[in-house]
Amino acid sequence: MKVAVVKENAPGERRVALVPETVPKLVKAGAEVLVESGAGEAAWFPDSAYAEAGAVIVTAAELYAKADVVLTVTRPAQKTIPRLRAGQVIVGMLSTLTSPELARDLAARGVTAVSLDGLPRTLSRAQPMDALSSQANVAGYRAVLVAANAYGRFFPLLITAAGTARPAKLLVLGAGVAGLQAIGTARRLGAVVSGYDVRPAAAADVQSVGATFIELTSVGPAVGEGGYARALTQEERAAQQDELAGHIARHDVVITTAQVPGRRPPLLVTEDALKAMNPGSVIVDMGSSALGGNVAGSVTGETVVTDEGVTIIGADNLPATAPTAASSAYSRNISAVLLSMVQDGALAIDLDDEIQAGVVITHDGKVVQPATAALLEPASDGGT
Ligand code: NAD
Question: Smaller CB count within 10 Å for the chain: N or C?
Fold first, then answer.
């Protein structure tokens, strides 16, 4: 089995799917590892390190011609799809729930697609494979550093001969994996930190990392499938935005991470809330996306300063800004997924396996993952 590592080509992407440290693990399992020349360069893993670890360095043309399995971090560019051939397997974070047409195109080419974002995350044997968590961890850490960099004051309490600086008050909205990492990081930098989430289970998590949990009186718990948050109703949303505005105004720095699987991120910081913040306040919107984010007026990949002097940073691929750490963790995740699917030195697709039922998106020319397949079905409302 030839397992190949591509050089990522999305703009700003610096991660690589497999780091040299993981190569011997795959070789031991009977794989031959091919690495596209320069694949790890932007994450500080030179070709020579891969070669020393037992991989063969190849050109992109050789890679697509020879590979049985192609490893990637993000979804392949549209122009890459024709390079994949029937029977080949692509493994990565393919985000087919937001781009189901990618699954349709890969199925049409007879390519088997395996996507790490389909993993059933609560299974204990899936923990080492959880790339959503490993990348959210990196993102939560980086979000705090980005905020600290943009903030015009100190995060910690500082007592100096030139006077005393009070610590920054930082609020994290959404206390999942990224939010909890952001809280821990902000605490380590000396900020006074509060956290909020709609899932009641998050209260204990927030407190366990040393922050104060903010409880809203106007919105009850909102837990949906699989322990994730559910989308709020319009009334709940309005009540939440109103009540949060008072808390937001009392903070210097806000980091928002709120997501609901398969939906556009909820708006948590409204224009009115922004107007009530002090000049010099900073917001990092980690929910920022092409559809809009958690913060009114945020733009993905851009920094906007409001008329009232609030800096809003639309986070864009924060894991790629710590490419060495993010790639090392991702490499462990992707190799764990791959090795769980290998039998007698070859990939054995078994859709009855709980993990494979989540991650295998296309196989044998069909979109087999139900959630992605449902998005590709024609609307069944009779066209009305
Ligand atoms: P996510 O990235 O999907 O969302 C981030 C956070 O936003 C979540 O905590 C969510 O509750 C919150 N949120 C959504 N809508 C909100 C709103 N309107 N207001 C405030 N907050 C809102 O979340 P995630 O980090 O991927 O984690 C989601 C869940 O999965 C959590 O329950 C987490 O503990 C769980 N999880 C479990 C495992 C495991 O069992 N091993 C691993 C990872 C995550």
Answer: C
Exposure string of 219-231, with b = 16+ CB inside 10 Å and e = fewer, is: beebeeeeeebbe
380 confidence band (pLDDT: 50, 70, 90): low
Any catalytic annotation for residue 127? yes
pLDDT tens for each residue of 277-301:
999 999 999 999 877 899 999 999 9
Mean pLDDT, residues 248-254: 98
Catalytic residue among 104, 228, 237, 264: 228
Percent of all residues in the chain with a pLDDT value above 70, rounded to a whole number: 98
Ligand 1 contact, 213 CB (< 6 A):
no
End-to-end CA separation in angstroms for the chain = 50
> Would you say the CB of residue 197 lies under 6 angstroms from ligand 1?
yes
Give the Å distance between the CA of 203 and the centre of ligand 1: 12
Q: What's this model's pTM, rounded to 2 decimal places?
A: 0.95
Please name which of 3, 69, 72 lies closest in space to residue 32, comparing C-alpha atoms: 3
Going from the Cα of 146 to the center of ligand 1, the distance in angstroms, rounded, reads 22
Q: Do the beta carbons of residue 255 and residue 180 sit within 8 Å?
A: no
40: pLDDT confidence band, cut at 50, 70 and 90?
very high
How confident is the model at residue 384, as a pLDDT? Answer: 37
Residue 139 Cα to ligand 1 midpoint, Å, equals: 14
Q: In this structure, which residue's CA is closest to atom 7 in ligand 1?
A: 258
- Say whether 196 sits in a helix, a strand or coil: strand
Q: Give the C-alpha separation, 72 to 83, whole Å.
A: 14
Look up residue 110 and give its two tokens: 């007879």
Ligand 1 contact, 227 CB (< 6 A): yes
Closest residue by Cα to residue 269 from 290, 302, 247, 291: 247
